Amino acid sequence: MKRHLPVLTEVAVREAEIQRHQRATTFEQQLLVEAGKTHNQLSCDKGCHNCCYYPVAVSPLEGITLYRWLHDNGHWKRSFKAKLEETHDRVWGLSPSVWLLGMIPCPLLTPEGTCQAHDARPFACRTTFSTQDPELCHPHRFGEASGMVPRKEVAGEYEKVEDQLLKSVHLPPVRLPLASAVLLGEMICTEDLSSDDVMRRLLSKRSG
C-alpha cells in the first residue's frame, strides 16, 4: 500500500475522519443526556447486531479509511477481499427492501456478532441506536416500532460536509454499498490513479 495519497486527497480523508468522529460523538452524547432525562436508555450493546444486516452506503472517503484500517490491522487478506467481492456482487442494484428481506450481512460482521472494523466503522453505523428490545431491530421488522433513534438530520449534515470534501478532490458526491466502497478504497490506495482513473473505476463498480 502506498504510504501517502495526493496531498488534497489526504487532507479530504483526514478531515472526513475528524468530522465523522466529532459529529458522531456529539450525537451519542446528546442521546445519552436525553435518555437520562426520559429514563429511556439506549439498548445497544456488544454482540447486538441486527442492524449489521441493514443496507449501508458510504462515500469513497470512508472506503479509503476502512481499507487502510483493515490493512494496517492485519485484516486485509485474500479471503476477506473475496468476501467483499461476493457481497458487492450480491447487493449491487438491490432495493433496500430486498436487501433487508435477504438478510445479507455486512462483510465486516464476524461470527461472534461483532464488527471487524469497529474503530473505523462508518458514520451511518456510529449514529445507529435503539431504545427498545434489540430484537425489534430485526431486518424483517424494519419500519415498525423498533425504537430506532431518528438520525436523518445529523446524517444529512455530515453528508453535506463530505460532499464538499469529495468535490475538492474532483470526485462525485456518491454513496456506494460498503463492500464496493472498500474495494474502491483499495484501488485508490494501491494504484497510481488520476481523478479520471478513479472516476472510471467508480463507474465500473457502479455497473457491477
Describe, in plain words, how this protein is organized in 3D.
- The protein is mainly α.
- It has helices at 7-38, 60-72, 78-91, 96-101, 123-126, 152-168, 178-190, 195-207, and strands at 57-58, 176-177.
- α1 runs antiparallel to α6 (152-168), α3 (78-91) packs across α7 and α7 runs antiparallel to α8.
- The two termini are 24 Å apart.
- The model has no long low-confidence stretch (mean pLDDT 88).
Topology:
Blueprint: H1 7-38, E1 57-58, H2 60-72, H3 78-91, H4 96-101, H5 123-126, H6 152-168, E2 176-177, H7 178-190, H8 195-207
Antiparallel strand pairs: 1-2
Helix pairs in contact: 1-2, 1-6, 2-7, 3-7, 7-8
Spell out the key features of this protein.
mainly alpha; single chain
Anisotropy-based shape: globular
Parts with pLDDT < 50 across at least 5 consecutive residues: none
- Sheet-strand content, in percent, reads under 5%
Helix content: 40-55%
How big is the Rg? 17 Å
Assembly state (oligomeric): single chain
Helix and strand pattern? HEHHHHHEHH
Q: Distance between termini? A: 24 Å
Structural class: mainly alpha
Largest sheet: 2 strands, antiparallel
